Predict the structure.
Amino acid sequence: MQKAWLKWTLLGVPALIAAGCATAPDEATTRQIAEKMVREDFTAPAPALLKRLEQDRSQQICSKIAGAKLTQEEAAEVVKLARASIKYPASGKLVGDWKIGDKLAHDGAGDRIQGGRLEKRKQNGGLCQNCHGLAPGEINVGNVGPSLTGYGVQRGNSEAIAKLTYERIYNAWAYAPCSNMPRLGATGHLTPEQITHMVAYLIDPQSPINKR
Amino acid sequence: MKERPFNLVAAVSLCAIVTTAQAQGTDPLGVGRRMLTEDNPGELWIDKGKQLFHEKRGPKNASLEQCDFGVGPGKLEGASAQLPRYFPDTDKVQDLESRLLTCMVELQGFKREDVVKRAISPGGSSGSDMEALALYITSRSNGMKMNVSLGHQKEYDMYKAGEYLFFRRAGQTDFACVQCHGEANKRIRLQDLIHMTSKKGVQEVVSTWPAYRGAHYVVRTMQWRLYDCFWQMRLPELKYASDTSIALTTYLHYQGNGAVIKVPGFKR
C-alpha cells in the first residue's frame, strides 16, 4: 500500500484525491448534462407532447435547488409574468356554477400519459382535492396546500373576492411566486370557464365548502 | 473500455479502495442476515429471482453468474448498497436495473427492447424477470448500509444532474419532485408523501426498494416508482433505465447513505 502511495504521489495524483477524487461540476455543466437527459429520456404518443418537458421562464426561475432563495428581482419577474398571463372568461362572469365546481374539485384525472396513450377527456379535473381540505368532514383530502374549508364564510362573496379567487386559481404565482400550487389556468390545465365554477364552489354560500 | 489517461485510472482505483474500506465498516452482523418480514408477500419473489439468476437462459444459454455489479463477477453481497456506480466496461454510471439489462443483453443475448418492454409487469400478474432479479440481488445486501460513492467524475456529474432534476419544474402542473417530497407530514389525498429532502425520509426510501406494492399485488422497483411519479406530473413517459432515472436514483441513494437495507419493502 505504501509503495503504491509513493508511486501515485510521484505521478501527481494526490491533487485529484484531495479533491475527493472527483470535483463538483459547475452549475452550467450540470444544467447542460441534465437538460440533455430531459431531451433524450422521455417518449410521448405525439411529438407535440414532448413540449411539456420544456420550461417556461417562470418555471426556470422557480426551480431553485435545495432551499436557495428567490431574489427580489426574480420574485418580481414571476409575479409580473403571472399577472400578464391571466385571461378572463369570454362571458365576463367570474362566478359560475358551484355544483360543477364541486365535481371538478374532486376530479384528479386528465392529460396523463401512460402506455403510449394520452388520457383524453372532455376536460381535465381540477386536482384541488389532492392538495386542499374541502367540505367539512371530508377525510380523503391532501394537505400540500392550506385547507379551503369555510373559504367563503371567512371572506364573503363580493366581486373583489371573486376576482382575487379567480386570479389565484388561474395563476397562483401572481400572489405567491413559485408556490407549490400549479398555475392551473395559465398552463392550460383548466379553462377560464372551469375556473369560474371553482370560484363559485369556493365562495357561494350554498356550496358544501361553506356549510357546517 | 475507452482509453483514458493513466493517472486517472490510478486515481479511480484508489478511490475504489477507499470506498471498499468504508463498505467493510458496515454492520458485521448484516451480511447474510435474513430480516424477518414474514407477512410480506414480496418474499416470494426472492426465490424466483434467485432461480432466474442461476438458470441458463436466453439465446446464449447463459446464467447471470458472470454479471459484475461492481464488486466482482457474480458477487452480490453488498453490491446493490453501492449502486448506482460507474462501470468501466460500459463507461456509464448504472443503477441495478440498467446493469441487469446490460448483463441480460451481453451475457444472455436477450434483445434490449424485449427486456425493456417486459421490465415493468402489469398489476396483478406474476411479475417480470427484472422485478424478481432486482429484488433478489438487493436482498443480498439486506442488513448492510447504503454506501454510494461519488469518487468517479461521472458519478459526481450524475449526482448533480439528479439533484438538478429533483428541483426542475415543468409541465401543466408546474411540478418537480420537491413539490410533493420536500416537506414533512404532507399528503396527496390520503397518500403520505415521503419527505426526501430530510435524511430520515430519504433513508426510508433508499432502503426499501424493490417493494411489494399492495395495490398491484406485485413487486415494484425504483424504475417503476419514478415512471409513476412522472405520470402523475403529467410529463411524457420516462424511458426505462434512462440516464434521467439513474441520475435521480444516484441523487436519492447518495443522500440516503448509511440507511440499512431491508427489502422487500411493503408499500400501499
